[in-house]
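The instructor's notes for this session suggest beginning with a concrete chain rather than abstract definitions. Hand out the sequence below and ask the class to guess, before any prediction is shown, which regions might be ordered.
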Amino acid sequence: MIDFKPVELSDKAWMDKHFKAEDSRSSDFNFTNVFIWGKFFGLTAAEVSGMLVFRTLVKDEIYYSFPIGTGDMKSSVLELLRHCQECSEPFKLRAITAENAEKIDILFPCLFDFTPERDYFDYIYLAEKLATLSGKRLHAKRNHINKFLNTYRDWSFEPLSADNVVLCAEMNKEWALRYRSEDIDSTFDSEQEALDKALSNFTALGLEGGILRVDGDVVGFTIGEKLSSDTYVVHFEKAFREINGAYSMINREFVRYVMEKHPEIVYINREDDTGAENLRRAKESYYPEFMVEKYVAVPRIQRSSYDAVSLCKGAR
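After discussion, reveal the predicted structure:
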């Protein structure tokens, strides 16, 4: 039986080695997301056959992540199958990218069925387009920017640091007070808790970010980090809704900052929409370059005796 344990901040160094080896554009393969959302998803982790695997509890269902790293993937999947057999759990792999689904299908031909989870597809944008907002389709975003610039003459953008991160925590408390009653999303409190955890461990997690000010007051902020060799992930973006254009401004200014600091970055991952209609519309309005599709994999044979294990032994 595999010994899965809660993720602690001290796990960052060894887990980051696996994430770096995977070099994925998926936001699931990122220590910050694992650490700050761990409680919400009942997440635990283990190294299985030299690969990193997560166990999560989503809507009362147990899932395992796609094994990542430089170990033996086939052995890792087999160990997970045996673990589920011993625990009398159904075997389900979650957050599998299209590329990783192909890898599994090659190792275990015709063994798994793959079902897409649209609510958890990541939105991927060209950094250059977000920085310039060029083209007809982003005309509305440019209008938001122009309205902001014409309305608020005394504005500024500054990088987030250990010295000013407390200002984001203060603004976030005010943000929650203003909009809690308007937000019917069941994850509102969980997101606030995850954000507080990110801010409290800003330096230790190696995060970056930016602050937007108007007349010296903080009206917006954003937090992100480098995700892979060519992709940057934005974890959080908050702005006061009464400040017209604030979201568009913090988005544009931060991407410009990222491109200057990390010239190798081509893409910006703005994560998923969790199926929330308003969030989906907002993310689609920036016209993503593509999506990181994610799937759930289950063995085509699901029995209490786990015949799938014996089938795997014959896989090439």
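Then share the key points. The mean pLDDT is 93. Residues 32 and 205 are 6 Å apart (CA to CA).
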